[in-house]
């Protein structure tokens, strides 16, 4: 079947009516083009949204104290309580599977009063008291100097790492930052590093206006004692923080005399759970892309099948002669199927090439553009998608040629030779 004469016959059959062949092929080309473009667009949206997380450890949750809604052990509901630094060590020891438990305290906030002074300049910034582990949970690029270390924690050093947004507001262009002092709520802290963040779900500008200081120095300077405002907790890679948080809550409730069934006493934001929902959304979008693309492709396949029926009808005499000369039904069937598959693959590959060119042009336009606020980045399709597309094309070609091929072998040689 795969010889020169066979392929010459296929080319001649498809080029007899160029216009008809091109119109037929366009349906398949357009279908595979739509499929690849939809998948690439979905991937670009996924990349943009994930980029918005700014590289944060997504297997994490944030936890803070609220007011108990039930009385317990003689303590009333509605009372106030705070996490303590001792809770951190208790969680590390009693809840297996936790990678980081980072206590945090905070001053200021978006829209808050001015809390930072340098010379004649003032500003309102988020100030966090943190441990070095927060660098693993909330990655940032240190642009100069360094981040908090455990020696800073142990020695209560009043040092600060500031964002580029703080630098712009509190310093003159080109002014040396490292080694200078900022007064935070009346307490001097020496700047030892600067950082830059990306993403943060559309809040990248606000993310640059944060100040990090050692947790112990923060507690000492602002009279926090053993109080912990909230915690950032990250699970190991082989554990889910969503599954571990029940054990975390049990430890905290036991240590602070909170009713085991009280669901309102501890506030939390499960980043892993939210991230899983987003992943589920993109899986659904990919399924929709395949569904729509295959439906459009199916219309092209129907067109090819119809054209092949017409071709078989036009070649009735030829088929009759071949049957009379001893051609087997499989030889006739194989010829029709091969023509159908060939036309489908050629038109489909043209669609893939066109879609790839469009995607390349989009990526070229996005080069050098800050996509952190666009929620769209690097649209692409991987090699697996190309193989899937090729598999779809081959199967589609077989389906498109199957009915015409069956019709072809049903033609009796005598009847075919009589047809004008």
What is the percent of helical residues?
40-55%
Q: Can you count the helices?
A: 14
The domain tally reads 2
Low-pLDDT stretches: none
Please report the distance between the alpha carbons of the first and last residues.
28 Å
State the total count of DSSP E strands: 14
N-to-C series of helices and strands: HHEEHEEEEHEHEHEEHEHEEHEHHHHH
Average pLDDT over all residues: 82
Structural class: alpha+beta
Major beta sheet summary: 12 strands, mixed
Radius of gyration: 34 Å
Strand composition percent: 15-25%
Silhouette? elongated
Could you characterize what this model shows?
By secondary structure, the protein is an alpha+beta fold. It folds into two domains: 4-54 and 276-418, no CATH class; 60-269, no CATH class. It is built from 14 helices and 14 strands. The strands form two sheets. Strands 1, 3, 4, 5, 6, 7, 8, 9, 10, 11, 13 and 14 form a twelve-stranded mixed beta sheet that branches. The mean pLDDT is 82.
